[in-house]
Amino acid sequence: MKITVKFWSYFRDLTECDETLIKIEEGETLGNLHATVMTKFPKLAKMKNSTLKAVGVDYQTDDFVLSDGDEVSLFPPVQGG
Amino acid sequence: MKITVKFWSYFRDLTECDETLIKIEEGETLGNLHATVMTKFPKLAKMKNSTLKAVGVDYQTDDFVLSDGDEVSLFPPVQGG
Amino acid sequence: MKTQLTLTPNPIPKSPPAMADGMGAVVTFHGVVRGTEDGESITAIHYEANETMVRHQFELIFAAIENQWPVESIRLVHRVGEVAVNETSLWVEITSPHRAEAFAACQFLIDEMKAKVPIWKRAVR
Amino acid sequence: MKTQLTLTPNPIPKSPPAMADGMGAVVTFHGVVRGTEDGESITAIHYEANETMVRHQFELIFAAIENQWPVESIRLVHRVGEVAVNETSLWVEITSPHRAEAFAACQFLIDEMKAKVPIWKRAVR
């Protein structure tokens, strides 16, 4: 199945793209997807531990099991205010 | 020596006056003065423990020794805001 | 630290926040007259102030704030006389480089005022 | 509890406080763009927002506030795009019957926002 991954803030500079489509197997988790994305975009790897991950509009942890059509957002720590 | 005592808020209703002149001896304290005032205005007695006392513009405790010309204010708990 | 203290019988005007270089936070408090007092309807509150002592006690509080926090400015307006229900009786504005000290100083100021500043209320029914 | 959330590229207008019967306290916060970032002079900050998620995350925070405190209303404006130095980027207004909950809710809201609401800054030099 295919998952759309969107990048925000300077993650877009590191990946040089706004979003990408990643193919994963049924039952794969958000953590698996993040690993796949870091393989494709190695510059994201050094931000691994500070990366925030959302599916749709909600934050999710690495053990979240993805479904077909999910939209994932990956971004650095937020800075509103 | 003579001390001017001013009343504020509903203490004025209880005493039915804005201020009064109290004669005290040299070396008397604010606590002594308060006792004399309560003798003159018995309705203030039930407020004894919640009465705030200032000499000039500063709060003082009962052991404060008064000087000639001091202006004392007696009033109930404050309620600004 | 700049301070401005106003005691006035007039409604409190809407002031734009006092911005200055390096200031990142402005915390404002409006104390508003509520329509009930001890469970009974009121139309206004009359505020009586011992004005000379009020000014001195606020100065002591401002000095205590300056000792504790890097606050840039404090503006405070307290109305005296009659203030109608739903009108502002107290307005405080504190500016500082960061928000934590502005919130801390504003709450400290109001708590200290409620303990020490000689202003009294009388409900108008 | 009433809430109003605005994301806008425009300067934040001066709004009169939202008074309602029974409300005794209005706490307002202005977050202002400071002239330096990491010790260097800047002219503005550009704010980027993941708007759909911003709205949802603010709704979660508003709901958490409603669960904890008797807050009457929250109004919040966060600017997006470029905000010049000394201009307000964030404006929050909270009304409640008494001051303690308005201060607590306002600080909670800002702390939660800074942890969870997907908005990012970029210094403009």
Outline the structure in words.
The complex is a heterotetramer, with 2 copies of chain A (81 residues) and 2 copies of chain C (125 residues). Chain A is of the alpha+beta class. Chain A has 2 helices and 5 strands. Chain A has a 5-stranded mixed beta sheet. In chain A, a hairpin with a 2-residue loop joins strand 3 (52-55) and strand 4 (58-59). The mean pLDDT of chain A is 97. In chain C, strands 1-6-8-2 form a 4-stranded mixed beta sheet, covered by helices on one side. In chain C, strands 7-5-9 form a 3-stranded antiparallel beta sheet. In chain C, strands 3-4 form a two-stranded antiparallel sheet. Chain C has 125 residues and is α+β, with helices and mostly antiparallel strands. Chain C has a single domain, classed as Alpha-Beta Complex (Aldehyde Oxidoreductase, domain 3), CATH 3.90.1170. In chain C, helix 1 (51-68) packs antiparallel against helix 2. Chain C has helices at 51-68, 99-116; strands at residues 2-8, 25-32, 36-37, 40-41, 44-49, 73-79, 81-84, 88-96, 119-124. Chains in contact: A-D, B-C, C-D. Strand 2 (25-32) of chain C pairs antiparallel with strand 2 (25-32) of chain D.
How would you concisely characterize the structure shown here?
By secondary structure, chain A is an alpha+beta fold. Chain A has helices spanning 10-15, 30-40; strands spanning 2-7, 19-23, 52-55, 58-59, 71-75.
